[in-house]
Amino acid sequence: MEELCISIASKMVEEPVALIGRQLNYLIYYDSNLESLKDALKKLDDKKNDVQRSVDAAKRNGATIKYQVQSWLKVVSKVFDEAKELETKVNMQRRCLYGLCPSLKSRYSLSRKAKKIAQHVLDLKLDEGLSNNVANPAPLQQLGSIISSEGFKGFESRKAVMNDVLSALKNEKTRIIGICGMGGVGKTTMLREINKRLEGTSLFDDVVMATVSATVNIRTIQAEIAAPLGMKLDEGPESIRAQRLYERIKDKRILIILDDVWTELNLQDVGIPFGVGPTTNQVHEGCKILLTSRNEEVCKVMGCKKDDIFRVQELNKEESWELFRATVGESLDNNPDLSHVAKLIVDECKGLPIAIITVGKALLPSNGKHEWNTVLQELKNSLPENIPGMEPEVYSCIKLSYDKLDSDEVKSCFLLCCLFPEDYDVPIEYLVRYGLGQAIFRDTNTVEDVRNKVHSFVGQLKRRYLLLDSHKKECIKMHDVVRDVATSIATKYPHRYIVRSFDAIGGGGAWPGVQKVTNQEHCSAISLIGAKLHGDITDGLECPKLELLQLKNSSWSSELSNYFKRLRELKIGEFGDTQLCSL
Hints:
The protein is α/β, with parallel strands linked by helices and 583 residues long.
């Protein structure tokens, strides 16, 4: 009994002492606990970055991220939030009286919190199997159904191209395949669907996808190819990384998908085993390349044969309407007041999926007909940037194609096309005359020199899908959305074009906004379609540098003769289907 009492008394003394000791340790080892937390967070951050890269690569390939991996990343994110909050409090304490008079209570609390977070970090272990395999293949779906919310549907225009591409991939003699089309037509979305279709098949050991983009970054491309293969490339020179990647995949049956290729990409610089090996004359039969580009010339330079270049066209009217309804929601069907204006909006998008989806996301049936009519008006007035989402999604997408044109001359040739009405068959000879009159082409001594240049530029613009073929001989057309973007570019410095279509806004009429046009003194071209001009309109319009005046389906009164006399720099006047009348 006595021994039992002594034992109990001993524990009663030891436990408080141990408890007090632990609390004192939080004060004594304050700096050490903070430093240990810092080291633990650094290791966790490295691990998180590795997992996140694998997750990003898996998402690009259309795979489904495993729930355990998603949960782990969320917990890790919360831990870093807690650590950041702790760091803020530590810094505040250090600033208090320059750290000369620290609060013991605060130091104790912060040290205890740091120890707790550090222990949580040590417990945050992700199974190595999950680290190397973060995703499950996405379930295959039938082409006849809506496959995704990003615009790829089972449309006949898409199924035909996809089937052709898949057939080419199965052809043992085909090594490189190109998918071409204008910006926003759905090339990348088609790649993702092809990737999904190939999963679970025995055609390739691996399918990897990398985005090349307008600004080529070899290291990024290498990393995107390596990640889904379970490789971790070090931070060494690109050439060493390329050699490691080459050795990893040289003996595999692999499909490498390169999205958004703008210029010729040297595959050996990346480490892609394609063509004849660098040290042997052996051709790599196992590696195939599938690329997308807005420029057919790039596909040819990369080695695509004519029959292995597939073009993605715009959607037809029925497909466009179905895509718009799927984007807006089925509630549109229950709102007959919006049905008419909705179809007019879809018509203005001219089958371009990115425009249809962007406009659809900006509109809701609950918004009311006034907002829908405003969007329709903006589209008709060639002002796409005024519609929510159009600037970052559509405008910038097409403008990038313009920015990447080879010269200012071809850019100027492209912008001349926006002077003509929507759906207009633009005679190439008009571009010759306008270009000659404004002297925008260098090193041309004769009309024939200009004509040769213009035809060459038109060919380039068609191969880059900024211009379209016309059913009329010696004519070209411009997609309406592309024309809207071209008009927006042309109205800004240094071009200062003024383009207005009055037919598009409900019939011919006077131009009420002439006097409000800014920087008129720099304006170099005016194109009016369906306008009624009279002295009251033009009195406030001063364009001393105007070189080109085009009036189509317009009318003016004889009192405008004095106005035309003021245009001393005018070099080109086009008055097709224009009437002189006594308004």
